[in-house]
Amino acid sequence: MNIKISSLNYCPVKSLSFQKINKCKIKKNIGIEGDRNFAFSKNLNLDEVKLFEKKPNERKDKWNKILTLKNSPVLNKYNFIFEDNELTLFLKDKKVLTIDVSQLTERQKLSDKIAELEKSLKQPLVLMRNENFPFFDTSISKKINFTNSISLLNIQSIKDFEKKINQEVEQQIFRGNIYIDGVKPWEEREWLSKVIRINNVHFKVEKNIPRCVAINLKPQTDDNSFDLLQLLKKTYNHFDMGVFLTALDDGEISTGDSINFD
């Protein structure tokens, strides 16, 4: 069995972006460096924003106060690219605005631009940033109040889904961090509680990823008529696609790296 990484991705802005990369740094118990370092709050006052941004324990049960594709599908038309401390907003393939994220006034400029473009969004919007405690809302362990994770998807599972529903499904819809190939469809579901190794970086396979209505959105549109969520349930009697990993070491992984078991 020769399992390899076919592609790597991360989301600099929680839920609202998808950036392809060739390699990435891994931080123990955090995940991919830069992943979900930013998030937009909506309809929070300044004191609430500060608590949510700096104190992960304050985020519990407040994730509906964050812009996501689930609660704001109009944002599926947009993407963000983060490079050299600059965050650029794109509308489909057209650049809209680039900001220096180290400047609070610049970050507010980006929030104001999104509010201007999408007047249906609840105000105020604030771009938050936290590199040490990124904006993950996954729930793996009940022992702690927040959990960071990496998502791993098996390309053959997606292809099996396509074949069974006789419909093309773009991989990007699932917004996975690590896509792998060289393994049978759905075999990743047998890896729960196991430890895998990629370029001498160890990861624990924690749980299956339950999907939400965001996968019904057609890429780069706010058209949510895809109904993939119900097709998953109808086809496999579950809503899952992919597995969550916890990083056990610091290190670096790249496209083409092999997946091994210890």
Structure report:
The chain has 262 residues and is an alpha+beta fold. It has two domains: 149 residues, M1 Pyruvate Kinase, Domain 3 (Beta Barrel); 96 residues, no CATH class. It has an eight-stranded mixed beta sheet. β1 and β2 form a beta hairpin.
Question: Can you tag this structure with a few keywords?
Answer:
262 residues; alpha+beta; eight-stranded mixed β-sheet; globular; single chain; 16 strands; 4 helices
CATH topology of the largest domain: M1 Pyruvate Kinase, Domain 3
Structural class: alpha+beta
Fraction in helix: 10-25%
Number of helices: 4
Mean pLDDT: 91
Low-confidence stretches: 139-146
Largest sheet: 8 strands, mixed
N-to-C order of helices and strands: EEEEEHEEEHEEHEEEHEEE
Termini separation comes to 14 Å
Condensed summary:
The chain is an alpha+beta fold.
Architecture blueprint of SSEs:
Elements: E1 4-10, E2 19-21, E3 23-27, E4 31-32, E5 38-42, H1 46-54, E6 78-83, E7 86-91, E8 94-100, H2 104-117, E9 125-129, E10 150-154, H3 155-165, E11 178-181, E12 195-198, E13 201-210, H4 228-236, E14 240-247, E15 251-254, E16 259-261
Parallel strand pairs: 10-11
Antiparallel strand pairs: 1-2, 1-11, 3-4, 3-15, 5-9, 6-7, 7-8, 10-14, 12-13, 12-16, 13-14
